[in-house]
Amino acid sequence: QSVLTQPPSESGTPGQRVTISCSGSSSNIGSNTVNWYQQLPGTAPKLLIHSNNQRPSGVPDRFSGSKSGTSASLAISGLQSEDEADYYCAAWDDSLNGFVVFGGGTKLTVL
Amino acid sequence: QLQLRESGPGLVKPSETLSLTCTVTGGSISSSPYYWVWIRQSPGKGLEWIGSIRYSGNTYYKSSLKSRLTISVDTSRNQFSLKLNSVTAADTAVYYCARQYTGSSFDQWGQGTLVTVSS
Questions:
Q1: Tens digits of per-residue pLDDT, A64-102?
Q2: Which of A37, A46, A47 to mutate to probe the B interface, most B CBs <10 Å?
Q3: How far apart are alpha carbons A76 and B27 in whole angstroms?
Q4: Contact A100/B101, CB-based, under 8 Å?
Q5: Cα–Cα distance between B88 and B97 in angstroms, integer?
Q6: Over the stretch B88-104, which tens digit does the pLDDT of each residue have?
């Protein structure tokens, strides 16, 4: 069971806007920044959003992130077929001696 | 352009030691402020952070793996390594090495290598 909670699946049609949620606690999302990763089938994860809402160079502005309290969200607007992938949130957790926690991942299906 | 590549045996017997090396090219492993990290993904499952190391040798380990885990760095070879002993089938996974920019931000990844624990 993952420390961060994500819905196992989401879906949308091309052009639609979809949102993926990530819920944590005061020791992780509540006190540290959230990062989002996209994992296309058979490939390594790719950093999609860092520092809650910043896009690395090359990531389309269709992808956006936000954080409020102990929850975060990834929004994808203008959904495209190539967005079909697994999405993971991650945060540093201050409990114990500090460690990285991931969400369980959300499988996004473009219908 | 920075690249990371994992190498090591794809098959390990139960109770033995899993050893992997990550070779970094196109940049120095001694660059600040980066840490270098191992992350694994069991078949059909999510991502699991294993541990991180800086060029100085400073490490962070996942607490549940700490008793079996050693991560080391060789700056002369621009490599860092993972050793996980007393492995079981539960350690079967794709193992990724990555560059850790800060906290949970991993901005460069290797392609991953599948390690199967089986007799």
A1: 999 999 999 999 999 999 999 999 999 999 987 678 999
A2: A47
A3: 33
A4: no
A5: 21
A6: 999 999 999 999 998 88
